[in-house]
Amino acid sequence: MGHWEKREPNIATYPPLEAVTRPAVDTDAAAYYLNRRPQTLRSWACFDSGPIKPSRINGRLAWPVAELRRLCGV
Question: How far apart are CA 74 and CA 38, in angstroms?
Answer without folding.
Answer: 21
